[in-house]
UniProtKB/TrEMBL annotation:
Species of origin: Streptomyces monticola
The keyword Membrane is annotated on this UniProt entry: no
Protein name: LacI family DNA-binding transcriptional regulator
Keyword Lipid biosynthesis: no
Record-level Gene Ontology MF annotations: DNA binding
Keywords, alphabetical: DNA-binding, Transcription, Transcription regulation
InterPro entries: HTH_LacI (IPR000843), LacI/GalR-like_sensor (IPR046335), Lambda_DNA-bd_dom_sf (IPR010982), Peripla_BP_I (IPR028082)
Domain HTH lacI-type: residue ranges: 14-68
PANTHER family reported for this sequence: HTH-TYPE TRANSCRIPTIONAL REGULATOR GALS, LACI-RELATED TRANSCRIPTIONAL REPRESSOR
Length: 354
């Protein structure tokens, strides 16, 4: 049978995406086959080569040249103090998801902390030297200069958790608003009427969305929002303790607490018990993340499960797509035209604390 050439949209030459679709693989796999990478099975290689021949695909020579300069390394950048990284299960779950996505590749993962100006400067120099192919950014605050710096360097990047509703980088987030809505709605259904919340930092978009969900759930239930029932936390256990003490002082009649993280819920539980409040008889308690902490607390903590490991996998998948796009010679400006904003669903896991 004579081979035929399938043209791309508008009569152009076949694209990498069309080859990937014909072969039933991802764009990154096609790129690896074309560039002679050994990280592909013989069966997959044969399928891609057959699709290339059938479509008459001609590799972009600029992309081939760029591919030769690959480092086969990506950086996971955490703009937080190291002590917070090791104290919160969120970060280890993200890394596990990234690790799963990298398991069948030879790409190395570089973990970098950039919580201060000096660390950011060192990171900027490192990235400018093109020592990694792309960057995963985790736990970014609204005013952090790192995302814009990375964007200016035209380095492929994906961010975990949007900085705002107008996020410009490719991002992966969970439905923070929907998760909070479900948590507070559950407390209302259980007959709780004086429901407090311990929020995350105000400069974290996800924390603000959880606060929005809390307020809207109360409004929907006919409970007026009371500023005295809102206490600012910082996603740490100590922050949860301080916030819970403030809430008890302001509103000793509270009968439920929605904490913006399981770690803060653990701090709140300590203060409630010290004050002689029984959980859940006197005060129902709900956390967020559904981490190992939630399952091992006594009583076991009701919590909003966000798919953190899946977020890590999806971040890595999207980063590979951005790297491949750059390797094909697409300029940074063109790549900005479409940057996915992926939002994954959350789920309320009900346990004994509520």
């Amino acid at each position: 049978m004579a081979a035929h050439q399938t043209q791309g949209r508008g009569g152009g030459r076949p694209t990498l995406e069309q080859v990937a679709a014909r072969a039933g693989v991802g764009r990154g796999t096609v790129s690896r086959v074309i560039n002679g990478s050994p990280r592909v099975s013989e069966r997959t290689r044969a399928a891609v080569e057959a699709a290339v021949a059938e479509l008459g695909y001609v590799p972009n020579t600029a992309a081939r040249a760029l591919a030769a300069n690959r480092t086969d390394a990506i950086a996971l950048v955490v703009p937080e103090p190291e002590r917070r990284f090791f104290a919160e299960p969120y970060f280890s779950d993200i890394i596990h998801g990234v690790g799963v996505a990298l398991a069948e590749t030879e790409v190395q993962l570089l973990l970098t902390f950039a919580g201060g100006d000096r660390e950011r400067q060192r990171l900027a120099q490192y990235l400018a030297a093109q020592r990694v192919d792309g960057v995963l950014l985790v736990s970014v605050h609204a005013d952090d200069p790192l995302p814009e710096l990375i964007d200016q360097l035209a380095i492929p990047a994906v961010i975990s958790g949007r900085r705002s509703a107008e996020e410009t980088l490719t991002s992966v987030d969970s439905d923070n608003y929907g998760g909070a809505l479900a948590a507070v709605g559950h407390l209302v259904e259980r007959g709780r009427s004086t429901i407090a919340t311990i929020t995350g930092p105000a400069d974290v978009y996800g924390a603000r969305r959880r606060l929005d969900g809390y307020r809207d759930a109360l409004e929907a239930a006919g409970h007026p929002a009371d500023p005295a029932l809102v206490a600012l936390g910082d996603f740490t256990e100590e922050g949860g303790r301080r916030a819970m003490a403030e809430l008890l002082e302001r509103r000793p009649d509270l009968d439920a607490v929605f904490a913006g993280s399981d770690v803060m819920a653990a701090g709140a539980r300590f203060v409630l018990r010290a004050a002689g409040r029984r959980i859940p008889q006197d005060v129902a308690l709900v956390g967020y993340d559904d981490s190992v902490i939630a399952r091992h607390m006594e009583p076991a903590l009701t919590s909003v499960r966000q798919p953190i490991e899946e977020m890590g996998r999806q971040m890595t998948r999207l980063l590979f797509a951005e790297i491949e796009s750059a390797a094909e010679g697409h300029p940074a400006g063109a790549r900005r035209e479409y940057r996915p904003q992926l939002v994954l669903p959350t789920e309320l896991v009900v346990r004994d604390s509520s």
